[in-house]
Amino acid sequence: MKKYRKLIVFATVLMLLLATLTGCGTDGTDDDGNGGDGATRIGIVLPTKDEPRWVQDETRFNEALADTDYSVEILFSQGSSASEKANVESLLTKGIDVLIICPHDGDAAAAAAEAAAAEGVTVISYDRLITGTDAVDYYVTFDSIAVGAAQGQYLVDSAEGEGNPLYLYAGASSDNNAFLFFEGAWSVLQPKIADGTFVIKNSSEAVALQDKAELTRDEMGRIISQVTTNWDFNEAKNKAESHLTAAAAADKGDVYILAPNDGTARSIADVFASDNDVTSYVVTGQDAEKASVQYIIDGKQSMTVFKDVRTLVKDSIEMAISVLEGNTPQTTGSYNNNVTDVPAKQTEVIVVDQDNLKAALIDSGYYEASEFTGLE
């Protein structure tokens, strides 16, 4: 009888052991469905779901990773640096090895990057550069200076004669890219401001500096503080309304508008279009958002700088996988983030207007023609 009881105890222990092993995932997955033990993972943090651009990036990331052996979790910070840090900390508890992060605020994101680096996680700054820390390993970006230069050049190429009213707008002063965009635009516009082709109408700081071909970061910051949209549609709208209210009829007519991205371009364009003293306007943008593509088709927005997110995402994923496989990612240059030179991979940009919209965005497979009306 004693021997029989021992056999029962042994069988019970064996069954519990088997149940424990089954619960741990003997099929090679952990409890959250990720491959292996969850240690080889890519965490991605994007700024907000409130802008079509970042929702588009989420889709492209999921598509790019669908055929890989690496799992991914994508979180949104909703325009909050505190939420951004919390998102990073959440991903760290899940054992990520690579963090791809597009910071809401470049300086504020330094703390999140440092937390990841302290855990041995490779930090890839995505599209926007994390500043003020040496905890950034790589930067994947479009050539932001080239984006601004393309916007400025479009305005220059569209202008005739002298005295053309120029309205300047910029992104958020917390975003390093906003400075790079403005730097690129200023490099092209300033000579045409100096020779009288354009007359700045909405920034006293820009007027005071209009004879300087190259601006310091502090000087750019003074201008941007006057014309920032903070990447916010409503703020762009309110600022444009305020500028037009203060402007005399002579400061309107055929106007030229440097708008930093598509969302703000649409808001600003709507304001200028509703002003009876504005005869016509040329307005820039970037990101090739669907709504702005339709605006370009309809003649309500002049151009956008197309940044093919498929390529940027592809570069990011290739870089992350290279790190996970123990290799050194390929880079094409570097950007100084005020502490260190961050190795970077740059992606080219394309200017899109009515003339090449179909070829650049539809024929390339980026969008479907059925997503738009009036497309010829």
UniProtKB/TrEMBL annotation:
Compartments where located: Cell envelope
Keyword Signal: yes
UniProtKB keywords: Signal
GO cellular component: a single term: outer membrane-bounded periplasmic space
Periplasmic binding protein domain span: 42-327
Primary location: other
InterPro entries referenced in this protein's UniProt entry, alphabetically: Bact_Solute-Bind_Prot2 (IPR050555), Peripla_BP_I (IPR028082), SBP_2_dom (IPR025997)
PANTHER family noted in UniProt: D-XYLOSE-BINDING PERIPLASMIC PROTEIN
Name of the protein this chain belongs to: Monosaccharide ABC transporter substrate-binding protein, CUT2 family (TC 3.A.1.2.-)
Organism: Alkalibacter saccharofermentans DSM 14828
Source organism phylogeny: Bacteria, Bacillati, Bacillota, Clostridia, Eubacteriales
